[in-house]
Amino acid sequence: IRCWSNIPFITMPLSRAHGKSFAHRSELKHAKRIVVKLGSAVVTRGDECGLALGRLASIVEQVSMLQNQGREMMIVTSGAVAFGKQRLRHEILLSQSVRQALHSGQSQLKDMAIPVLEARACAAAGQSGLMALYEAMFTQYSICAAQILVTNLDFHDEQKRRNLNGTLHELLRMNIVPIINTNDAVVPPPEPNSDLQGVNVISVKDNDSLAARLAVEMKTDLLIVLSDVEGLFDSPPGSDDAKLIDIFYPGDQQSVTFGTKSRVGMGGMEAKVKAALWALQGGTSVVIANGTHPKISGHVITDIVEGKKVGTFFSEVKPAGPTVEQQGEMARAGGRTLAALQPEQRAEIIYRLADLLTDQREEILLANKKDLEEAENKGRLALPLLKRLSLSTSKLNSLAIGLRQIAASSQDSVGRVIRRTRIAKDLDLEQVTVPIGVLLVIFESRPDCLPQVCKEGSLHCWEFFDDKRQGISVAHSNQILHHLTQEALSIHGVKDAVQLVNTREEVEDLCRLDKLIDLIIPRGSSQLVRNIQKAAKGIPVMGHSEGICHVYVDTDASVEKVTRIIRDSKCEYPAACNALETLLIHRDLLRTPLFDQIIDMLRVEQVKIHAGPKFASYLTFSPSEVKSLRTEYGDLECCIEVVDSVQEAVEHIHKYGSSHTDVIITENEKTAEFFLQHVDSACVFWNASTRFSDGYRFGLGAEVGISTSRIHARGPVGIEGLLTTKWLLRGDNHVVSDFSEHGSMKYLHESLPLPQRNTN
């Protein structure tokens, strides 16, 4: 016997052989047999008289979907009392109306008092109607449902228990959904703490305990308890600082303060937790979630089964390390301490990291070699992906140089005064730079990203790998780089400012922590960026979904420059987001020696050419026609299209581009300036490769991403793009009333000189 909340209950029911619940949410997709418990607040309307038909229909649809996937679904439902109350009220009103009409000779309804309806009578009147409603809804999905009414006494008689068990198994075998409810028409009033009355199993006092009892009796894999709250909170929902508990472990009960029960129903959250823990110890996994919220009720059950972070998951296995919420809190606290360091201290940390990248080069390359070997064992890797996964001595040297650039400029980053204003006498205002806060940097098989984003300010680093990359991870590289980063931070006691996670589930969880994460920066494919933008809940995402970069070759282009710039833009690193994807050529250059040189160079470099619609129309035998002019190839492929003028080139870029980087090659300054001024992209170049669109090449030190948005940072993002500002006002007993019409003070609003910047 175990004891919890002063109520003992056995750790395993007598009828159940020892089972093992799922340890993690991601395993819930393997659940075969599932019980869905619908609380009274989920099934009934807000007036507690009648059913919430829309919610009920949505739940039936989800249960039907899972049933048709081959799972065995059971429903423990409330609602008979509410449905019966609606029917009886209608009958009483109708009866009173008739009697009053006969008595008074008129059909006016006056002061009709509806008597208090007894719950058992309501249940008796509502059970048949509730079941008829379920049958009608399940019939729409070609699924048969069957009703089973039980009481607590049915579980004390061994023969009745066996009969119930056999009935349920037979229904499941025939692909029928059992709908179970307590027989409230005959059930006795609940006895408080009846588990203490010598009963060695959990008593059926409400539908929570009924669902737990059935789940364990039937050796169910998963019990989903739907209520009118998001899950289990550490204090009553709605109270100050109430926090939703993502995962609840046996033994954590003392950390929870329970409130009152819901507006309807027999049990409250305490009853649900007790039932959940009892089911968990019997080998059934449990999730308590909200079944009433209009935004999630339409997919809450399927989301839970898919392993998404919904409600509170009960698990017997505690994780070895901190949860993502705890990591976020550590990064927040460490980041604030880091931001408060002196510039010399931040510079010392960054210099130390640069030295570690150089000193520990062999260990880093060895770890990266392990990642490459594991990746190659999963299949042949494309060259662009291999280059992205690989670290080299030159890459590490470049990272170290970039970090030293940041360290050297640390005096002029965090805490830099950018505006000073004298508001009034002895009242001075300053605007100073500060870190944005905690950054969630998600990078896809790019190990060099981790040290790139280590700057003077608060940041939070993560790795994410995508199925489209064959599940390829750079875990070994990330681990050693993360270790070195924390070693550098530890010299001033702020190593927790940088955290690392490695799974999709953790990334999805992080995208919901809008109270802990200030900005998300995805680094990877366009699909990754789109997925993160979709997953982010109230957190701004800085980045670009696609890198569709153009090079326009004008009629006045230099022969010597054209092939060099196009080769570098496309072939130097074709997987980069700043690589050329569409080559625009002026119509007058077709069938000229310059055009032939371009084609020959692309063939030598083994670039696959796709013809745009206009280009294809000029050719008798054209390359494969492009499927879309809005394509990011990310490989040795590109599209060639023909335009009639620089104006048409600009229009094409605006229609099909992604506002990333676009280039004109011409010797005509007037044409070039027209292009530079009219192309509305983050980076617009004249006679230069698209590959220059990079924070390191711009002299920004390290680059954490490229943004095509129009708010905050745009283009390659370095230190400046990761800073925001705050206002500091220094006064001496100043109050606003002194500046009123008859006050003693006047506003000056004088601009003051800025402090001398360190230019060394």
From TrEMBL:
Keywords: Amino-acid biosynthesis, ATP-binding, Kinase, Mitochondrion, Multifunctional enzyme, NADP, Nucleotide-binding, Oxidoreductase, Proline biosynthesis, Transferase
Enzyme Commission number: 1.2.1.41, 2.7.2.11
CDD domains: AAK_P5CS_ProBA, ALDH_F18-19_ProA-GPR
InterPro entries: AceGlu_kinase-like_sf, Ald_DH/histidinol_DH, Ald_DH_C, Ald_DH_N, Asp/Glu/Uridylate_kinase, G-glutamylP_reductase_CS, G5K_ProBA, Glu/AcGlu_kinase
Biological process according to GO: L-proline biosynthetic process
Source domain of life: Eukaryota
Entry keyword annotation includes Nucleotide-binding: yes
Reaction(s) this enzyme catalyzes, per UniProt: L-glutamate 5-semialdehyde + phosphate + NADP(+) = L-glutamyl 5-phosphate + NADPH + H(+); L-glutamate + ATP = L-glutamyl 5-phosphate + ADP
Subunit structure: Can form homodimers/multimers.
Protein's name in the database: Delta-1-pyrroline-5-carboxylate synthase
Native organism: Nipponia nippon
Higher taxonomy: Eukaryota, Metazoa, Chordata, Craniata, Vertebrata
